[in-house]
Every structure is written in C-alpha cells, then in structure tokens.
Amino acid sequence: MSGILPQTKSSAVNPLKSSQPLGAALAFLGIDGAIPLFHGSQGCTSFALVLLVRHFKEAVPLQTTAMDEVATILGGMDHLEEAILNLKTRTNPKLIGVCTTALAETRGEDFARDLANIKMMHAKELAGTEIVLANTPDFHGAIEEGWARAVTALIQRLTLRGERVRQSKKIAILPGWNLTVADIALLRETVESFGLKPVILPDLSGSLDGTVPDDRWVPTTYGGTSVKDIQELGTAVQCIAIGEHMRPPAEVLQRLTGVPYALFHSLTGLKDTDRFVSLLSSISRAPAPAIIRRRRAQLQDALLDGHLHFGGKKIAIAAEPDQLYQFATFFTGMGAEISAAVTTTGTSKILKKVPAEQVQVGDLGDLEGLAAGADLLVTHSHGRQAAERLGIPLMRIGFPIFDRLGSQHKLTILYQGTRDLIFDVANIFQPNQHAPRPESLDPFRK
C-alpha cells in the first residue's frame, strides 16, 4: 500500500492536470449528434478547445454560454437559455451536454432548476434534443472526475428506469477516460469476437477516430453512442466498468436498472486481460476465439523478448490516478521500479494500490524534483521540458499529446496493446543503454 502525500504548494509550477469541464466535454464528444456546452466565460471554453484540437487534430464542436461581467453577478440563466436555443436552431443536435465551470459554480446557481425552466418554457422548440447537465467546477477534481460525472449524468438523465427484459448477448461497457480511440475500437472488436453485442458509453472511436463525413459539414459529433442506446442500457445482461473512476456510473446503472457490473482497474497486462477474456467466455458460454488465443501467445513471446530491457529500470510517472495505476502496474510487472509517482488528486481509492512507496499529489514541477536518476519519464506532452532538463527520455501518455501524431491510434490495453507497450518502451531503452566498463565489473582492476 502506497502512502499519499497531499499537495502543499499554493500554485502549480508546471500544471499536470486538466480540468473537470474538459473531461466532461470529452465524454459528451463520445455521443452521436452531441454538442458539449461550457456554462461559463468564453476564455474557459477557448482554452479547453485548443487542448482538444491539438490533441486529436480534429474539428471539435465545443460551444460556450459566454458569460460576461453582468451575468457573473446577476446570474447566467439568460445566457444558458440563449445558447441552448441558438444551438437547437443552427445545428439541431440530438444532445446538448452542459458542463458547468468555476465561474458559474462559484456563484452557486441552481442549474438543474434553470434547465428545467428552460425546457418547460421551450418544450416545442427543443423537441428532439436531450439536455444533460454535468456539475464540473474547475476548482475541484480533474479530467478523470469530469469524465465520470458526465457519464453518470447521461445514465441518470436518459436511461429508462426499472427492471427490463435482458438481452443475453448485450453488454454495457463504461470505458475510462484514459483509453485511447484505438483501445475502444479494440475493446469493441474483442467483445464482438465472442458473439456479444457491446454498447460502449462513451464511444470516442465513433466520433474522434480521424474520419471525415462524406461531402458534408457536420456541426455536431458524427459518431459514437446513440441516445437510444443510452436509454436502453437497462436491457444489458452485464455492465463492465474500466477504471476506479467508472465505479459511480456503474453503481448508478445498477441502482436504476438492476444491471450487475464488474469493475476492472486496468486492462493492461496478461493477468487483467485473462480475467476480462474469462468473463466474456462466461457470458457468451463459448471458449475464446482463435484470434484471441493467438494474440495471447504473441504477448507471451513479447514478455520473453522484452523483460530483459525492463529489469532494474527506474520509472517516474505523472498521470491521473487510474492511468497512474495502469502504467505503474505494467512497469512493475515487467521488472521495473517506480521511483517517482505524481498524480492530480488524492481522492481516488486506487492510489493506495499503486505499486510505489508514495504518491505525490502535485504537478510536473514535483515530478521533475523527484525524477532525478530515473531511466524514463512517463507523462503527457507538457513534461517534455522537464525531460530535456533532466536528460531523461520521455514516453508520452494521457492528455494532452500535441507534439506527436497518432497518439489516439496507439493501443495500451488487452493482449495486443500490452504487447505494443512492451515494444515501445524497450525501443526507448535500447538506444540509451550503456555497456558496463571493465572497472565497473571488477573493483580491484586498478
């Protein structure tokens, strides 16, 4: 069990975390025909939009209520109402996901009541568009909590309540924010190979996978989980949540519909993937397909080929709690040591399971101070300056990654993703390995 060191600095030297509203917006981007709407100032939205566009290299339909000084003092309901009606008129989205920011939350507005009044006054104009509210103040939590709150809000607002007739082949999957577009696509492919039908919420592989609609401009998301699929989640026979931060939405789904859930803290590594495949075999009542067995054999070979490059290596990681756990367990499972672990928030229960002596809640400045002597730095693109100053190679994970192409098409989970991670890390280590000198092997040589 690792010790958790709270943040003691009054300001971030080199920020590590992204805000809750950004995490909620990212989740809403995984819904078909959706538009995330930031309820706050124009600057908050612009900053989040820049990060999303630079990370995905795609056009992102993110909008704002553009609260000004008067709205900040007197209340922003008028701005919220105007923004929703404008979006309905101009883009006719299937869903508007409202993400609150610190500007509106600090004032203490009753957003649920405001939205209820707006929907009641404009029931005819807003017909056919669902509006979902996620309370996500910037001053609390990070991208992980924002994603989870948005998914919880979607289930609470849209999923039909009560026990439903279960479809024996239907599985609800709640992926964590740290899964890439390629991870989610592989997850779907793996579940379908067992003859099962997955409903993934949210599904970024349908909306941010680098495709362009044919001969038309789409002002909303153009892929992802449909509103109807969210409404019918109660007909699933099983729910699978990936990451500790996805436990709350899974519990809400179970409470509202009775659908049982299984939680996987990580799907990276042989042991966790074996457990996942065993669950799919149990649900489908069929053995693992030949392609899955083949990929497992490939991972076993990669473990044999790669473990010599990991032994004794010191790794410094800075990431959100669940992603920190995902990669820390991967590295220690390969024989490396976690010499420094930094995260964004100390509230997650998964931090106590991180295989490190202690986890520091802080920023990239803390990581730089703790990472001296490490063999590899693992964090997002904002850690590149620290890596340069320390002379340590950087492995980019998480959000944002803006100085490399194809980050969303890298695999990190299941047999195939774990195999690719082994090769990627080993290829970073190999050019930086130094053959031992004779005097280092024989202390009496001189």
TrEMBL record:
For this protein, the parts annotated as crossing the membrane are: none
**Top-rank taxon, per record:** Bacteria
Q: What PROSITE patterns would the database entry show? A: NITROGENASE_1_1
Instruction: Name the UniProt key words of this record, in alphabetical order.
Output: Nitrogen fixation, Plasmid
Q: Which GO terms describe its molecular function?
A: nitrogenase activity
User: Which pathway does the protein contribute to?
Assistant: Cofactor biosynthesis; Fe-Mo cofactor biosynthesis
Record keywords: Glycoprotein included? no
What are the recorded Gene Ontology BP terms?
protein-containing complex assembly
InterPro entries noted in UniProt: ChlB/BchB/BchZ, Nase/OxRdtase_comp1, Nase_comp1_CS, Nase_Mo-Fe_CF
Write out the function statement from the record.
This protein may play a role in the biosynthesis of the prosthetic group of nitrogenase (FeMo cofactor).
Sequence similarity: Belongs to the NifD/NifK/NifE/NifN family.
Query: What is the name listed in the Swiss-Prot or TrEMBL entry for this protein?
Result: Nitrogenase iron-molybdenum cofactor biosynthesis protein NifN
